[in-house]
Design goal:
single chain, mainly alpha, Farnesyl Diphosphate Synthase, two-stranded antiparallel sheet, 16 helices
Length: about 290
């Protein structure tokens, strides 16, 4: 079974647990709408890539962690699109959840996905439940998880590195640490890799927000400028941001801890990361 099929099957089982016949029909529909069809599934694929590089000694715990992290990511997108945050009507090439189902159901579906992520871990993670729960929970809440990252937007002054590390990097750190922990590796040694990948992904996202198109990205562009949010292109210029992206990618390669699949993991990370900025240039940013 290929990784994509494995992930979609795991996510379908998890969502079916919440969106059952006993669930209010509109909420059940909104839950499925928020998760399917997915985007690139970059985060859960990273969990499995790290688990495989570490020998994948517990495949059930690895794929459960991957699904839990993707459910949390989907929940964050539902909440991020709400009128009180980005007020975005488009996500993954279709109306965002609040645009399709209304604000109340969007809040509730995001909340339900957060709870479901940890319920699914409890059902599937077995003996790895405690370390995996601790890793993932710490990267989602406060003081420096994705909730904290969103909260920085409410402050009058924002340190872009702390903001982006919490909003984006924390969940990528959860991916690398959970992937390693599922196979019995010490997770803390994999945190630096996750943060480097996460910051590189955020720089790529900032570059695409400035130089990409809504048609290709499946979401509005120029959102950071419209919402007066920190953006690496605004801070460093287009070429400076692209250079920073390459530096972070090199940092990520150097941060991969020794493991059986170290070389292959590096190739996977490089390939996926470079694909994010393919075709972008200062010319498209100025257009």
């Amino acid at each position: 079974m290929d990784i994509g099929t494995l992930l979609e099957g795991e996510l379908d089982q998890a969502v079916s647990r919440a969106a059952s016949e006993a669930c209010p029909p509109k909420l059940a529909d909104a839950l499925r709408y928020a998760v399917f069809p997915g985007g690139a599934r970059i985060r859960p694929r990273l969990v499995l890539a790290v688990a495989n590089a570490c020998g994948n000694r517990n495949p059930t715990a690895a794929v459960a962690s991957a699904a839990a992290i993707e459910l949390l990511h989907c929940a964050s997108l539902v909440h991020d699109d709400l009128p009180c945050f980005d007020n975005s009507a488009l996500r993954r090439g279709k109306p965002s959840v609040h645009a399709a189902y209304g604000e109340r159901l969007a809040v509730l579906s995001g909340d339900a996905l957060i709870v479901l992520a940890f319920e699914w871990l409890a059902v599937r993670a077995g003996e790895r439940l405690a370390p995996l729960t601790r890793i993932i929970a710490s990267c989602v809440g406060g003081p420096s998880g994705i909730c904290a990252g969103q909260a920085w937007e409410c402050e009058s002054e924002i340190d872009i590195v702390r903001y982006q590390r919490a909003k984006t990097g924390a969940l990528f750190a959860a991916c690398t640490m959970a992937g390693a922990a599922s196979s019995g590796y010490e997770p803390l040694g994999w945190q630096k890799l996750g943060f480097a990948i996460g910051e590189a992904f955020q720089v790529a996202d900032d570059l695409r927000d400035v130089a990409g198109s809504a048609e290709k990205l499946g979401k509005p562009v120029h959102q950071d400028e419209a919402n007066q949010r920190p953006n690496f292109v605004a801070e460093l210029g287009f070429d400076g941001a692209m250079g920073h992206f390459e530096d972070l990618l090199a940092e990520a390669m150097a941060a991969i801890p020794p493991c059986p699949g170290q070389e292959q993991l590096g190739q996977q990370i490089t390939g996926v990361s470079r694909s994010l900025v393919s075709g972008l240039s200062s010319r498209t940013a100025a257009a």
